[in-house]
Amino acid sequence: MDYEVVIGCEVHVELKTKTKIFCSCPTDFGGEPNTHVCPVCLGLPGTLPVLNKKVLEYAIKAGLALNCEIAQFSKFDRKNYFYPDLTKAYQISQFDLPICKNGYIDIETDKGKKRIGITRIHMEEDAGKLVHQGNTITTSAGSLVDYNRAGVPLIEIVSEPDMRSAEEVVEFLNSLKAIIEYTGVSDARMEQGSLRCDVNLSLRPVGQIEFGTRAEIKNLNSFRSVERVIQYEIDRQVDILESGGKVIQETRTWDESKGRTYSLRSKEDSDEYRYFPEPDLPPVIVMEDYIEKLRAELPEMPKEKRRRMIEKDGLPEYDAGIITASKALVDFYDAVHTHYGDAKKISNWIMGELLAKVNAEGIELNALKIQPEQMAALLKLVDSGEISGKIAKKVFAEMFETGNNPGDIIKKQGLMQISDETALKTMIEQVVETNPKSVEDYKAGKTKALGFLVGQIMKQSRGQANPAVINRLLVEKLNSM
Ligand SMILES: [Zn+2]
């Protein structure tokens, strides 16, 4: 039987506020365990939460950027469950009246354009972190709890089950990550846990309207894991259905090293959490003019930026797509462009040398040592003929490592392009003398020999000879022989 896969995502995004959602503890990552805590985020009796206004602002901004309706009336609820990562045995979240709903993201895959619905976005507090002793939870002798993360603000973005392939999910997550980055409400870094994704996946026979039973897979911390988990779950569920079995509704976890999912627990229905309105926080009432003020503050989004780069800067769609996928990359491009006019040359260097280095060394784009002005200076040095394109790559590698100015690197390492004819003529004499066979070949009409001789001179000059001048002088020399 042919099956259709149905996928939805729940994405937790950590908001980049200075302090926690209901107290004034810092949200900084790291720190000694249990040092970023206070009576409120430890849930001690008698304390009362107060909503951080910045969290509301960021949640609304994310909602506006994701084309959501913003609720003018929303409220907080208690989600009850007992686990040591919660100090209060409940998490303050939003249940039936979330801050945002009915949004969407437009994505594009090989199969064309598609709109993926956003069901809702709600605000909630993060839980603490359990640190298990030993290698795995099953062999652990004990666990310690760190509450530094308890009360760090999150938004949970829930998509409609609109996706039908791993490719669509990855495209959805890429677009979502870029949009969130642009709004500035979060770093949205999957590897560091500020963007976490759960995937809901079910199968149904092609043509069937009702959804099949879904499994929810948690613990995905890279785009690569998302792709792998989807393929694994499709295979697992097909096997069950083909052998006449039934998929059960459950929460599963992904083991990256083993490349498989494991059952964690049978899936709770929401009534098992016994949600009820949070009595310690008043409802959140948002005025229309406040929403409009935030809407006006939103920066240009990836889609508009892409269009402008294509229409105004004359970049190919492909280049614009790659650069706008990351806010840090766009900022770098823009900054170089203010110092240097040729957009296509900038994008060639970004997509070539820069991204190759970034990927090879696993460096964060916002931690680059090379400054945009230095990149512009390097491109100008190539244009003026002071260094060749080949040498420029060498200089770039040094700039990337050290953050030094291209001019200083060139001077220090003596990399200036040699266009001086007297110096070049000496090199030509030598090479012609030591390669009589190639000279003969050239004379006999084998033009390939010319390329070989030019190559020898370039080699001798450590790539610094000006190839255009070499070519001209060498032809003159050979013709005079
Ligand atoms: Zn606190």
Shape designation? elongated
Largest sheet: 9 strands, mixed
Low-pLDDT runs: none
N→C terminal distance: 78 Å
Neighbour order of strands in the largest sheet: 2-6-7-10-1-11-12-13-14
- The percentage helix is 40-55%
- The number of E-state strands comes to 16
Helix/strand/pairing category: alpha+beta
Radius of gyration: 30 Å
Whole-number total of structural domains: 3
Taken as a percent bin, the fraction of beta residues is 15-25%
Q: What is the overall number of helices?
A: 15
- What is the mean predicted local confidence, pLDDT? 92
Produce the secondary structure layout.
Layout: E1 3-14, H1 53-65, E2 69-70, E3 73-74, E4 77-80, E5 90-93, E6 100-109, E7 112-125, E8 129-132, E9 143-146, E10 153-159, H2 166-183, E11 195-205, E12 215-220, H3 223-242, E13 250-255, E14 260-266, E15 276-277, E16 284-285, H4 288-297, H5 302-311, H6 317-324, H7 327-339, H8 343-361, H9 372-383, H10 389-402, H11 406-413, H12 421-434, H13 436-443, H14 448-460, H15 467-479
Parallel strand pairs: 12-13
Antiparallel strand pairs: 1-10, 1-11, 2-6, 3-16, 4-5, 4-15, 6-7, 7-10, 8-9, 11-12, 13-14
Helix pairs in contact: 2-3, 5-6, 6-8, 7-8, 7-9, 9-10, 12-14, 12-15, 13-14, 14-15
The structure holds zinc ion.
Zinc ion (ZN) is lined by residues 20, 23, 25, 37-38, 40-41, 151.
